[in-house]
Each structure stands twice: as C-alpha cells, then as structure tokens.
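Re: that backbone. Tokens:
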C-alpha cells in the first residue's frame, strides 16, 4: 500500500505528538504518585497523634464501664436461669416423662385395651341414642341414588361444555378454504 509523501509526513507528526503526550502523561502520573505518598504519610501521622488518643479515651470513659456492667448482668442472669432450670423445669419434664412411660405400660396391657374398646363403643352408642331422643344430635340422612345421579349428570354437563369450548377454540386449517381466481368452484373434502 503506497502512501503519498504528505500522508507520511502527517503520520510522522502524529507519532511525534503521541510520543510527547505519552511522556507528559508519565510525568503527571509520577507527580500524582509522589503527592499520594506524601498524603498517606500525613494521614498516618494525624491518625497516630490525634485520632488514636481520642478513640482510646472515649472507649475508656464510655464503652468500658458499660461492658463491665454488662458482664456482671450476664453472669447474674445466667446464674438465675440455671437455678430456675434445675429447680422448676427439670422436675416438671421428668414428671411428664414418667407419666408418659406409665401410660405406655398401661396401653400395652391387652386386657385393658379390650375393656376400653368395648366400653367406649357401647358408651358411644348409648350417648348417640340418648342425644337423638333428646334432640341434641340430628340424624344425618345417608345419600340416596338420586345424589349420585345428579353428580353424574353434572360431570357429563361439564365435559360437554369443555368439549364445545375446545371445538370452538381449536385451530383447524381445514376449516378455511381460499377462493381461487380462475372461476372454478372449490371442492371441500369432508373429514372422516
């Protein structure tokens, strides 16, 4: 690719300008690094001489007494909790476990289970009959065949509505026939 003399001179000038800009940028970055180092030294000195003593005195005057008081409070709360647990909670839990074990032992006794079943069954029947006589318990009628017939009719009606909706909304390309321009009537094929 051949370049004219004028273009070569312009490219040479641009290279020189780019080199000058690059060297200026390096100088600026070096100066910025020097300023940053000096600023960090000053910040460290200020932090060590001014900020650290203030933070230390504030900690000793305000935070440390609260921590000391909090530790004492935590210790007394822990002691009270331990005493309450051993005096109140532990005996109640062990008593409940003992009662549960005793009930399980009784429930394992086959004769006792059979007696409870027969007593509860006969007692339930007696209570139901007495409640019906007094009028406290209503006798619920059992569903007859009419209920099941109505349910079946409802299911069939819902299926019919769903089928009709499906037939209406389905995309069927055979339903649309375009008219031809040659004047010959179009034959439609019937679906099997």
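Recovered sequence:
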């Amino acid at each position: 690719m051949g370049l004219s003399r004028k273009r070569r001179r312009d490219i040479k000038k641009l290279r020189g300008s780019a080199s000058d800009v690059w060297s200026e940028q390096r100088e600026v970055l070096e100066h910025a690094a020097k300023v940053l180092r000096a600023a960090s030294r000053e910040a460290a000195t200020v932090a060590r001489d001014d900020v650290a003593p203030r933070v230390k005195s504030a900690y000793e005057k305000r935070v440390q007494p609260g921590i000391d008081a909090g530790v004492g409070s935590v210790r007394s709360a822990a002691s009270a909790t331990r005493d309450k647990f051993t005096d109140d909670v532990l005996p109640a839990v062990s008593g409940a476990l003992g009662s549960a074990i005793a009930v399980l032992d009784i429930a394992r006794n086959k004769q006792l289970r059979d007696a409870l079943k027969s007593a509860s069954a006969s007692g339930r029947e007696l209570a139901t009959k007495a409640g019906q006589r007094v009028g406290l318990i209503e006798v619920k009628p059992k569903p007859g065949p009419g209920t099941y017939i109505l349910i079946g009719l409802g299911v069939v009606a819902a299926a019919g509505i769903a089928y009709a909706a499906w037939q209406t909304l389905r995309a069927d390309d055979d339903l649309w026939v375009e008219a031809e321009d040659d004047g010959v009537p179009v034959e439609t094929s019937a679906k099997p």
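Residues 93 and 99 are 10 Å apart (CA to CA). The chain has a mean pLDDT of 78.
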